[in-house]
Amino acid sequence: MYLYRAYDRRGxxxxxxxxxxIYERVKSHRxxxxxxxxxxxxxxxxxxxxxxxxxxHAEEIRAIRxxxxxxxxxxxxxxxxxxxxxxxxPIDQTRTVGAP
Length: 100
Description:
Number of domains: 1
Structural class: alpha+beta
Order of helices and strands: EEHEHEE
Largest sheet: 3 strands, antiparallel
Number of strands: 5
Radius of gyration: 15 Å
Shape: globular
Distance between the termini: 46 Å
């Protein structure tokens, strides 16, 4: 398993992810991620061939919460899941039911 980080030319962290095949995942980002054009460099941490998926996923979540990359939505401290019909919204644009 690999934990990877994508950075722009100014060194700003754009995205954190995990994968078992780093080359295929980068190719996938190239095809589907709007932020890919801004990537200047990648940092890849090899978590080990025998690293269980749940351990790697826990490390990914920890890193996203601690480092707050620009384009991660899930697990980001800046985003909130609005449920099945609502999708995701920035925390500062969400309100508790009954709040003004």
